[in-house]
Here is the input.
Amino acid sequence: MSASLGRLVSPARQVFRFEPQGAVADSPARGASQGQGKPVQRLSPITDEEWDSRLAGRADCSFFHGKPWAAVLAQTYGYEPHYFAVRAGETLDALLPVMEVDSWLTGRRGISLPFTDYCDPLAGSLSAFQQLFDEAVVYGRNRRWKYLELRGGQQFLASAMPSHRFYGHELALMEDEKVLFAALSPAVRRAVRKAEREGVRVEFLNDARGISQFYALHCRTRRKHGLPPQPFRFFQNVQKHILARGGGIIVLAQAGARSVAGSIFFQLGQQAIYKFGASDERTLELRGNDLVMWEGIKYFATRGCRKLHLGRTSAVNEGLHRFKLGWGARECTINYFKYDLRKSAFVPGRDEALGWHNKVFAALPLSLSRFLGTLLYRHVA
Here is the structure.
């Protein structure tokens, strides 16, 4: 085990306390902070036609802060958006995006944001973040949230205990294909060349056909890993709100008439993110996964992107960790934080990527696994 991995998975048991200033449990929710500075407003990007333009130009903004991702989450799972923001005219000075998950199975809580690899609060200072956090806690207590979960924000919560730690990987992009290829590990370069010799070809799609082909691969991959697939309507909404509007692409590897691997990438300005990957386990020797990633890298590099984020990786997923390191990416840590509103403290969590449930879902018929995924994902968030 590497030293960095050892640090990543070392359990922390101390509970750090971070009592929001003015966060009173029985205060009425007013939608605006009564603290100093500009008021905090509770907004919804879904009803704001100018939302994405209000975020334009922010270097700290990611794809996940935008309206399309909010629309996917709300329309698929029924989550209610509560985006705590400070406005300056027509732009946003600060932002803490939150979705309320109201579940009879897992409880009511605020998450920033569900099914999201990372989503740092947008704030220019600790005091600006504190103002957003205060308002979210006040609102959450009135709504009887169990927790407020942040998927990012380490820069503002350096003394708080993370609930989860994940690997993150960022790849610097450039238009020079030879330089990009030389940065790959020797094993990855060989895999890409093998896929090309085997006649694997790649398609770039953003339509319903592409989503259907990718979803078939997604279901196979989730079953292999012992997890239920996400609902098909989730990927239909991804296609409708993101891909069809130029916010990303599906990259599919084909061998003959068969789809053997695929990935879905999102893009915002000069940043792209590898969000989903899947493959047919019967054809892994064709190295379609490697070719799909390589073609995705070239696609975004030639379209002005200068950074490709490879998403989060669980510390227990050594195979995925090695795969991402092979592309010459810079490794970082993504910290999640869970604030218990009843204890007024950050509390630990548990990475449930591996457990008894993996064997159960791996053994289920795919139709039953899909049905359970449709039922369960909105509760898990």
Q: What stands out?
A: Confidence is low (pLDDT under 50) at residues 1-17, 21-35. The two ends are 30 Å apart (CA to CA). The domain at 168-332 is CATH 3.40.630.30 (Aminopeptidase). The chain has twelve helices and 13 strands.
